[in-house]
Amino acid sequence: MSTKDLCDNEAKAKLRDLAEDIKFTMMVTALDLKPLNAIPMTTKKVDEQGNIWFLSAADSDHNKHIENDERVQLIYSDPSDMRYLSVYGEAVITKNRKILAELYDKKSDVWFDGLEDPRLTAIQFYPREAYYWEYEKQ
């Protein structure tokens, strides 16, 4: 396993590579509550600034949690290739139609009744601190 201190563009590139490749994460919201509220989420995109995007239902518990406390922890895990990523940051919810149209995919977003579903929202996650571990093949 290896770890490195990464800064700026190198850190954003590593975060993008891992988050987009592993794709599925456990999103932990309401960090002060016990037990922790962790739900599986699909990474839709990592933008040029390193922000991670998800689609979510407006009436979901995690949306309600984010509205009350923007702090979020993401935990990515790929045991088959021994790659792991833990990211702490803040999240905001948007209903911006342009963003939703960019992120929405009818084939993979089975939780919604199309792009016009009034429950459809996007979560923009702003990473503040991240750690990764990966096995370096010899």
From TrEMBL:
SUPFAM superfamilies: FMN-binding split barrel
Pfam families documented for this protein: Pyrid_ox_like (PF16242)
Residue ranges of every copy of the General stress protein FMN-binding split barrel domain listed in the record: 10-136
Protein name as it appears in the record: General stress protein 26
